[in-house]
Amino acid sequence: MEDILNTAETIQFLPERGSIEPDPIKELENGLGLWAAVLEKIPNGVIAGGAIRDFIMGVQPKDIDVFIPSKLFKASNFEQWEPHPNAVEYEAGDHVDAVLQRKLFGWVVDLILVNLPETEESFGARVIKSFDFGITRSWFDGELHDTLEACHDREKGRVTLMLEDRLDRAWKRFDRFNAAHGNSWTFVAPPRPTEEVI
User: By C-alpha distance, which of 95, 98, 103, 96 is closest to 64?
Assistant: First the structure.
């Protein structure tokens, strides 16, 4: 996917790397109206993960994650986007090709380009299967889709690990989530990995 960002049609980044210029359009509250407005600017995208989880839980998210199929990405449509300063947090799986970022409607929006196998499932359903926590497995594509995994986790005050190949990373992410949400959550996962002592 490096080719996407290294083609003749490259993205024109903002002059100061790492700075996110504010969007001139008024700020919107997190929720269905914001998500619909964001998807008008990013056709073929779905909003998934933390913004939806936090909206349902009545908490403000740190950002809005929008996923689009890499094959539909056109650099000329995203000239005002810049590389995500911490893209490594999205690179747990081999399906993430690139992560860009900018401010829209008063929110930091992360644009995640993904390469997922075609199946009978919707794009949103395929995206959330790559999420390691059950509580984040919800998406918006013009309609809100809330999975049983996400509902059960919220109802029981737990975070269930769905993909065990990321255990060390998952424990660190759970610790951040739990601290940000009152330290009252239970993590349903194998035990925390211990560092080997030599």
Answer: 103
How does pLDDT run across 144-164, given as a tens digit for each residue? 999 999 999 999 999 999 988
- The CATH number that applies at residue 154 is 3.30.460.10
Show the domain range for 106. Answer: 2-162
| Residue whose tokens read 């000239």 | 79
pTM for the full model?
A: 0.80
User: Is the predicted pLDDT of residue 177 greater than 70, yes or no?
Assistant: yes
Asked whether 36 and 142 are in contact (CB, 8 A), the reply is yes
On whether the CB atoms of residues 46 and 123 are closer than 8 A, the answer is yes
What's the Cα-to-Cα distance from 82 to each of 2, 101, 106, 184, 195, rounded to whole Å?
15, 5, 16, 36, 36
